[in-house]
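The methods section describes the discrete structure representation at length, but only in general terms. What matters is that the chain and its backbone geometry are given together, residue for residue. Nothing conveys this as quickly as seeing an actual entry. For illustration, here is how one protein appears when written out as sequence plus structure tokens:
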Amino acid sequence: MFVPRPVERMEDGRFEVRLSGQERSLLRGLPAALDDLIVAEPGDPSLRRLFPPAYEDAELEAEYQGLVGEELLGGHRASLLALAETVDHEHVSEEELHAWLSALNDLRLVLGTRLGVTEETYEDGIDEADPQADDLALYAYLTWLQDGILEALI
């Protein structure tokens, strides 16, 4: 079965985003949900991959976070905001598409951490009886979309 690419580079350098209304609706809510988590619960374990520790030593780590923590936070939030602001656009710039890529990566990291996704997770497909089936399907969709964006950028 042929599945069209979700994103195509156009001759003028912009990118055509080929997503259904349902896909856009789904993507519309995800950035705000992750941004809320980042702001309201910065110590949530599922955020660890977004803000990985650089040092085992607590003092050095605190110093490191003091130097780069706000920059990391700002970068994640800016990408999420860019996705939220452009999700309904039929065409996006390369810069906007890079923000989509970053936001999708952040969403996948957090969701994958929460689900405990490993290389073996999808070996047998998604069991619809699994209580995490919807979240696993969302993770797979975000992965597919991220791959499509990478293909368009390359």
